[in-house]
Amino acid sequence: MRSGGMVGHTVGMSFASRITRLPRPFDPDLGDEALGATPWAEGDMAALIRGTGGTSPYLNGLIRKEAGWLQHALDAPETALPGIFAALEEVADGDLDAALRQGKRRVALFAGLADLGGVWSLEQVTGALTRYADLSVRLALRASIAREIRRGKLPGACEDDIGSAGGMVVLAMGKMGAFELNYSSDIDLICLFDETRYDPDDFHEARSALVRATRRMSATLNDLTGDGYVFRTDLRLRPDPAVTPVCISMEAAERYYESLGRAWERAAYIKARPCAGDIAAGERFLETLRPFVWRRHLDFNAIQDAHDMRLRYRDKKGRGAITLSGHDMKLGRGGIREIEFFTQTRQIIAGGRDPDLRVRPTVDGLRVLSEKGWVPRDVTDRLTEHYRAHREVEHRVQMIHDAQTHLLPTAEEGFERLAALMGRERAEFERDLHHRLDEVHELTEGFFAPDARDGGSMPDVPDELAECETVARWPSYPALRSSRAVEIFKRLKPEILGRLARAAKPQEALAAFDGFLAGLPAGVQLFALFDANPQLIDLLVDIVSTSPDLARHLSRNSGVFDAVIGGDFFSPWPGAAALTAELTEVLSREEDYERQLDMARRWAKEWHFRAGVHLLRGLTEPEEAGGHYADLAEAVLAAILPVVQDEFARKHGKPPGRGAVVVGMGSLGARRLHALSDLDLIVIYDPDGVESSDGRRPLQSRLYYARLTQALITAMSAAMSEGKLYEVDMRLRPSGNQGPVATSLSAFRNYQREEAWVWEQLALTRARVVAGPAELAGEVEALRAELLATPQPQDKVLAELARMRARIAAAKGNGGDWDPKIGPGRMQDIELVGQAGALLSGTAPRRTARGLAAAAREGWLTRDDADHLAATYRLCWSLQIGARLITEGALDPREVGAGGCAFLTRLTGTDSAEALRDKLGEMTTRAAAIIEAALPEQST
Q1: pTM
Q2: Which of 177, 638, 654, 798 ranks highest by number of CB atoms within 10 Å?
Q3: Record: fold of 153-293
Q4: What mean pLDDT comes out for the span 30-52?
């Protein structure tokens, strides 16, 4: 049952039949007095009333005052509280104060008996109390707003505006927001109003009226009268309460949180929810605060903030070993707040990335954290059990005198009374409580104490590293300009230096790490991430030791480390379809177009990083990794295209006709990309006879798709705050740079049949639709198969291939010894032969190896020669994908260092850089000879 519910699954059962535990009467005479007021009670019901009235003076008074109502309520427990709620909805404003206080007495009595008798769970008790608080606030606000409107004090407002409170909303904070009110809880409220409801000239008058309404509402709830009070009400959680009115504009609140909001306020808003007034306006306000509460990157810096808050509480409540006498069950060591901080801090850390973590109740938060892999299941199970037990003790402490206290008794008599209300023997109760407090402290302290490792053994760090000039200049770097960053890095430094000392080439690794650290614009967040997850230091040192270039890239994009903590970073690759679905879901959460594009960039970086780390760590082979990079590019295009279309359609209308598809050419079509690949694309559309779009600014179909394509290119390649996605190359479209950027299906069909050059047919062998409507995609693929089913004569294709090789050699040269792509017998050369084999086969396979096999079947390559070309291509590809991961420039073993060379030799199955160079030279020389022998000689 949800936290806000009341009885639910107990429908049809009597109250007495659900009793599972009973309090003992601490004062039997008082118990008999309560029983005397309820002569109708018998059996367990009588024992519950006697134990309750004999131990809690407050509940004793309620039993005697409400005995008549209680009899009927217990006879029909499912309708008892709903009946109170319904009756209050009909109360006139003038009678509301007394009626709300009577309702509170009855709810408190019924909930107290249901709690003490074990009839309700903790969530049902706190849910019932919270639902009554919601109703009370709503009715009190309604009456207060109605008074202002009827007096003509709220500008422009009429009777119809009472329901929405004239744009005012009350946010329930803390335990009320999470449906977790304790038995004698005060309620924390923030009152805001939507200033856009009023003309600027009426702002001050409206605010004054809403401030008066807020004060009257608070008095209705808070003031102690002859009938008691409803709820003690605290309005001090609002922004800057010392200088702001009790009701402030949403715009002012938003400005405050954006510029001055503090860590505790972020945590408070985890539980915030609109409970009265203009609920829709409240939801919109909370949405505007989402970036303040839920940060984009994993926010391990929140651990330190929470730890500091805990220490402040400890300073007030005392340190040292737990003693039960006078111990604070909420704020003390091992208490309720420790569990809440543990839960909320974990939620803040990762809730920006995972909306599933944005739940309000503590128990729900623990459950989701466990399901998502952030906290072990046994830890959440024990903390949940202790949380519920702590809350029960808290409730009974408060039930005795209806006091808003969390302190355990200091006198012997007080503990005897509390144990009696718990229905337990005192000695056993105290042992159990002490154990729970100790275990909560033990389970949470290691998470919050960031200096826990300081007392342990530190790695041995050679003096030549610890005292070198490189390390000495670190304090001058931008990442270490704040005291918080320096404090955290001081803890990390021995581990980092110890790990660098164990690298194959410590000085090279240190220099690479220095490049990473020097490039960091700020350090607190990343250092906090490493501090909470020391295993990331190993990964970072692995990366910087292998690739100084990648280290410098990481310093500018350190947020990608977030992905490693997600739990499934090292799981098998999910594939293009799953990636597309995930990115589509991510983008659907954002309404702003630019934010969608930035989120796509952030998401793609993390998956790009994951693909690279898997290759770096040996979890994938070069062939497999090429497919992963291609899957990622395809997912980005498939998810981004609808977003671009929707944005474009806002001005120019929906795509005319059947829409457009994006066709991946070259390496994308063949599903073989590396870390620095750009994307060769063409766009094919089908207007289906529709001449123009139907938007506010309609465009002719041809112009519509041309501009839509340009918008897609911009969305992919524009430099934004999160960088760019991919460089896009459209030169493989019909007529190259001279043709339109988007081609209609009919024009594409005609061009390929009547005008296409042989090189364009070769390129078509690797074409693959990667985004767009499925029906049109199927037609384009069918057209591709049809066009390639009847190949050109073999001698014509091979002659053209020979001329293409000559032109490429003249334009690009023969590459260098370490170039895996350009030069005779290297990747590009072998790809052309594979495309020719694919074209001449009439079946047009996209992968180079299959094209080479087709050439062998057609007889213009021998099987052995085709196998050698395929093996050479695999070697070149392994070197290419590895080199592009660790360096952006030309490959030079002297520049990539020992770590980089070790990585490349592992990928290529060689023993050393020299052996790799020799193998590459031998295999490509023979490959070049095979290709030259298979092609006709070129006339000079």
Answers
A1: 0.70
A2: 177
A3: Beta Polymerase; domain 2 (3.30.460)
A4: 96
